[in-house]
Write a structure and sequence with these properties.
5 helices, mainly beta, elongated, three-stranded antiparallel β-sheet
Amino acid sequence: RMAYIEVDGKAWPDPDPAKVAALVENRTIENIPTSGRNLYQLHYSQPGVIKNSSYWGDFELYAFGNINGVIISGGRSGENETLLDGVSNTRGDRGVAFAPSLNSVQEFTILTNTYDAQYGRFGGGVTSITLKSGANALHGELFHFLENEKLYATTWADNALGNKKTPFRQNVFGFTFTGPYYIPKLVDGRNRLFFMMSLEGLRERNPQLQTRTLPTAEQLQGDFSGLTDNQGRRVTIYDPTTTQLQPNGSYTRQPFAGNRIPQSRINSVASKVATFYPKPNRPAIDLANNLNYAQ
């Protein structure tokens, strides 16, 4: 007795080769909060991906130091590939060329090893981004995210200096608009030809409090008689023209008398440039006169 199996059509082998990859879907992209609305931040949620940049602040779309500061599957930072709808999104220096808005992304995949022949030119991982496409109906969305200092606590620096909150305003806004190409009597792209438009803008006002160590009025005149280290020990200023080589190979110099540089030894141009230094405006934090200026 014999059995027969009849198959209609052609059977094709699975074209998707064995690979290690992680798919991040649109629902995850839109619902999981990210600092700065940057999809590249979701890299770190995947196994085999390590952040190697030192900055942990906001991750806006312009934060390319963070975008490129990633190690995938043990490869070197800066040796990764990014594809945008299948087209290389990588600059000549191996950095990412363009960071799309979150609202324009449908999904993205991170391949960490075992690549087939369609990938190349890199020694790390592959981030393949798929943008949204249109549909037969028009769809759109507007968004606006606000950050304001009234919603924040006072920073440590402002507290230490007795200052009010530093003003901060950040507005992230934009839109996404999709649909079919349709021009009556000319083009009917329904079921065939679609478009997607996306814009994300950033407006930020973020003045930073800066503290600096500036020379005192006496030091600008060459008088370092009051110069001490953090423990109150005098710091000696030596005359470079008195340098002498000793038999043992070392060098010695003579200090300026009274730790004061004679006016005749001060360059007239340097003296004029020194007048542009702002004057110290706050008490120093130690005996070495450090951080005596804030703005």
